[in-house]
């Protein structure tokens, strides 16, 4: 069991459980570890928490002091950092976020060069360094010192990628969005409206202190009211870093992660695109989901709670769809 890193990164109250020195040392280690044989490049994103700027600066200082270049996507989503890490050939990616937690918490999520959660053996080495047990890392000097690069273009490219996935226009649809005062506060509206939808948006006025505060996927009642009072066709609520999504139908009925998994599973099976005819769930999924899968002739596997374990099962066994009741939905190619 890791001392600092859980299934979703190093998380805790900012400058208490997770402080700026931790962030600096993580940057120092990653810059040296991935820069052993070449100039290391790392992409960094963050959500809207006030402490995110502090951690971004500390990570950047650590990386550049070890000779790595830090590419800053600024406020963006965790999936976007994963995508850009993979497609733009970064050595690793970092997302600064505590997901659905309140503003005073923050976290550091680490991704490998494939945009997946960083390997445990690397995490173990980071923890040794944080505890002062690793070898001393020399400072880069002269032209070897790294640079910080504005990389908002990466976020914009990810937005374009999401738009390209749509198979039809959303013209005529009226969609409610709850952005949790987090990472999607500008992104979600622009994506849906580019596809032709009319949007009504809440949770899109972040001030650094109100992320997930009575809004977003963990406070779905606000979106339910928005959809029913405005007679919208559907609504989507994200968490602070947008790696979770919960939906609401036109009647205000909540469509949680289990129901979303069923909808996607049935859709993919009907089109013969559900590899191994299997969906990966966690032990927290509702029994009703399994009864529905049985009726549809869809197999399933159960893992421990955590999207990390869901993805590990998917990758090991070649499954293409998995997720959690909380709204983590994972597609694999």
Describe this structure in words.
The protein has 333 residues and is of the alpha/beta class. The chain folds into 3 domains: 5-156, Alpha-D-Glucose-1,6-Bisphosphate, subunit A, domain 3 (Alpha-D-Glucose-1,6-Bisphosphate, Chain A, domain 3, 3-Layer(aba) Sandwich), CATH 3.40.120.10; 166-255, Alpha-D-Glucose-1,6-Bisphosphate, subunit A, domain 3 (Alpha-D-Glucose-1,6-Bisphosphate, Chain A, domain 3); 263-331, Alpha-D-Glucose-1,6-Bisphosphate, Chain A, domain 3 (3-Layer(aba) Sandwich), CATH 3.40.120. Helix content is 35%, strand content 22%. The chain has helices spanning 20-34, 51-65, 78-87, 120-130, 152-165, 187-194, 221-229, 257-270, 287-296, 307-317; strands at 5-6, 9-13, 41-46, 69-75, 92-96, 105-111, 148-150, 174-178, 198-202, 234-238, 245-249, 254-255, 278-282, 299-303, 321-323, 329-331. It has a 7-stranded mixed sheet, with helices on both faces. It has a 5-stranded mixed sheet with strand order 9-8-10-11-12, sandwiched between helices. Strand 11 and strand 12 form a beta hairpin. The protein starts with a strand and ends with a strand. The model has no long low-confidence stretch (mean pLDDT 96).
């Amino acid at each position: 069991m890791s001392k600092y890193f859980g299934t979703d990164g190093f998380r805790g109250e900012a400058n208490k459980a997770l402080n700026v020195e931790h962030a600096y040392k993580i940057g120092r280690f990653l810059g040296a570890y991935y820069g052993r044989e070449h100039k290391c490049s790392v992409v960094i994103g963050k959500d809207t928490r006030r402490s995110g700027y502090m951690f971004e600066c500390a990570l950047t200082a650590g990386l550049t002091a070890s000779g790595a270049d830090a590419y800053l996507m600024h406020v963006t989503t965790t999936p976007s950092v994963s995508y850009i890490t993979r497609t733009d050939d970064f050595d690793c990616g970092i997302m600064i976020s505590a997901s659905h937690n309140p503003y005073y918490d923050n976290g550091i999520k680490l991704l490998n060069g494939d945009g997946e959660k960083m390997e445990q053996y690397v995490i173990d080495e980071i923890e040794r360094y944080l505890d002062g047990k690793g070898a001393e890392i020399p400072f880069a000097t002269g032209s070897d010192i790294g640079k910080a690069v504005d990389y908002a273009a990466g976020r914009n490219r990810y937005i374009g990628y999401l738009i390209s996935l749509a198979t039809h226009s959303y013209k005529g649809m009226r969609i409610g969005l709850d952005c949790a005062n987090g990472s999607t506060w500008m992104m979600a509206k622009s994506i849906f409206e580019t596809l032709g939808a009319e949007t009504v948006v809440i949770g899109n006025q972040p001030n650094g202190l109100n992320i997930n505060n009575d809004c977003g996927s963990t406070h779905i009642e606000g979106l339910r009211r928005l959809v029913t009072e405005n007679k919208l066709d559907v609504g989507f609520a994200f968490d602070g870093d947008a790696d979770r999504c919960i939906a609401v139908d036109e009647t205000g009925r909540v469509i949680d992660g289990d129901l979303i998994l069923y909808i996607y599973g049935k859709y993919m099976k009907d089109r013969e695109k559900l590899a191994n005819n299997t969906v990966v769930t966690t032990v927290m999924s509702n029994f009703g989901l399994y009864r529905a899968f049985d009726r549809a002739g869809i197999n399933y596997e159960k893992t421990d709670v955590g999207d990390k374990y869901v993805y590990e099962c998917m990758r090991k066994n070649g499954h293409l769809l998995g997720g959690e009741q909380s709204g983590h939905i994972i597609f694999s190619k």
